[in-house]
Amino acid sequence: MSTLTKSNHIGRKISRIRELRDMKQEALAQALGTNQQAVSAMENSETIDDDKLAEVAKALGVTVEAIKNFSDEAAINYFNSFSDNSINQGPIGNQNICHFNPLDKLLEAFEENKKLYERLLEAEKEKNAYLEKLLEKK
């Protein structure tokens, strides 16, 4: 009976974290001050020295421990643990979603401004009429 053990392939973990952060190899290479081929070679390496790993972790915005302990299963479980994975919930994103038509609100504001203008115009007409009456009496 053979037992399957998961390898601790650091390069593959770096590749997965980079992909999850929606970063291309070129962008990581630029952040590390190297080229895309070097990043590709690093992602194919099973081990990486600690100094280089620290640089990569900083460029990816994660800790060295996060890279060493990364697993696809843990990442999937983390995102599936939310009760509502919609785009406006949880740490994934905090985006505003309109539950009304903005154009309708704009038209409502326009109509209200029009009514206010008409009331102001009527008040001015009444004031002018009152002043004309005062002038006629003198």
From TrEMBL:
Superkingdom classification of source: Bacteria
Pfam families documented for this protein: HTH_3
Recorded coiled-coil stretches: 103-133
UniProt keyword DNA repair, yes or no: no
Occurrences of domain HTH cro/C1-type (ranges): 14-67
Keyword Ribosomal protein appears in the UniProt entry: no
Keyword annotations: Coiled coil
PROSITE patterns (UniProt xref): HTH_CROC1 (PS50943)
Transmembrane stretches, start-end: none
Gene3D superfamilies: lambda repressor-like DNA-binding domains
Protein's UniProt name: Helix-turn-helix transcriptional regulator
